Predict the structure.
Amino acid sequence: MMIRRSSASTLDNGPLGNSFSTGSAAYTLTSVDLLVLADNPSDGGSFTVSLLSDSSIHPGSTIATDTFHDSMLSTSLSTLSAPFSSMALAADTRYWIELSTSTGSLEWAYTAANDGIGVANEYNFYAGSVSANQSFTPYQMRIGSAVPEPSTWALMLAGFAGLGFVGYRSSRKGAVLAH
């Protein structure tokens, strides 16, 4: 798998973005891992990693953002873990991760393969245009530590308890009829 890079600089092709969807359960997002590098980590630049809503298969409004210094990165591709402070995400909803810099040398890795580490497998945003990951190269990211909401766990546990009770009642009914 050949990995290439795109500049996240707003002076070049940035900002860059990749979408992901939550699926049928609500989740709590705690981090996003990105495969990135800085051409010049000592340039004094900084960059932002943002979580955005979806707007008709385009990046929407900013939900959360965090700023990092280029000095955290190296000149070779490495994983940056961008922490999010337990962001509650709705079920069956598309979100976007966006990288942007106007002062730094940040680059985000992409590959032609749609099965790389943590590929979002939906849509990406490059130079002001949105493309499906199947027809364009997806940026490499992993939506990390997303766990079901407590209400989802409670509902699931209540369902298991109900099934256990039904099983218990049917086994007791069979024992009474046998006597």
In short: Residues 3-148 form a domain with the Jelly Rolls fold (CATH 2.60.120). The chain has a mean pLDDT of 76. The first strand starts at residue 3 and ends at 7. The chain is about 15% helix and 45% strand.
